[in-house]
Amino acid sequence: EPEVTQTPSHQVTQMGQEVILRCVPISNHLYFYWYRQILGQKVEFLVSFYNNEISEKSEIFDDQFSVERPDGSNFTLKIRSTKLEDSAMYFCASIPTGGGSPLHFGNGTRLTVT
Amino acid sequence: SQQGEEDPQALSIQEGENATMNCSYKTSINNLQWYRQNSGRGLVHLILIRSNEREKHSGRLRVTLDTSKKSSSLLITASRAADTASYFCATVFGGSNYKLTFGKGTLLTVNP
């Protein structure tokens, strides 16, 4: 069964550094998402992406965050200047169509900012 | 807040028993979904119930939806140790963008 893959599985970075989290959504999917989960807390929506542009973003997704689909397969989340509070699991998800479909999640990237 | 909220926050049962988890939400929804998360892993979709449905089954899972009470329940029958995980409900609201909003989850522990 096709899967959403995320790399790396664990990223450690120093405060103020830029990180790029990478995702390869399922190939025929059209809608892409990033969610994050701070340890022990709920899964929070960051951003949705469709047709090469952001569809919706949460208040968490400030100017430090950006997303890109640089080619036909990758979907990236960039954090320009990481803060300690950015430490979390970041999950990528995709769906084939816009309505009524369950999300397919990757296994996540654990980001640790020191 | 529009998010679903599950209760209980944690549930510990013996293998073979049934586990019931509840979810409440605040606004009208298009559908409600239940996901499972093993520790440190991604979320796996379990079941989706649409706003015009009242009950849905999938294997040992039974989900109910009461839109008048804005609540849903997930029942896992004949639980197994392998069912140990966190379970989240997620709601999809009306609107042009398709976005899931998750609750805080229920940590289920099934003791062998």
Briefly, what is this?
Chain A is mainly beta and 114 residues long. Helices cover 0% and strands 50% of the residues of chain A. Chain A has a single domain, classed as Immunoglobulins (Immunoglobulin-like, Sandwich).
The global form of chain A is: globular
Average predicted local confidence, pLDDT of chain B: 90
Largest interface: A-B, 28 and 24 residues
Gap between N and C termini of chain B: 38 Å
| Structural class designation of chain A | mainly beta
CATH superfamily of chain A: Immunoglobulins
Kindly give the count of domains of chain B. Answer: 1
> Globular, elongated, flat, extended or rod-shaped: what is the shape of chain B?
globular
Q: Which structural class fits the helix and strand makeup of chain B? A: mainly beta
Rg of chain B, rounded, reads: 13 Å
Number of distinct helices of chain A: 0
How many domains is the backbone of chain A divided into? 1
Which CATH architecture of chain A is right? Answer: Sandwich
Strand content of chain B: over 45%
Radius of gyration of chain A: 13 Å
Helix content of chain B: under 10%
What is the chain-wise order of helices and strands of chain B?
EEEEEEEEEEE
Overall pLDDT of chain A: 93
Compute the separation of the termini of chain A in Å. Answer: 37 Å
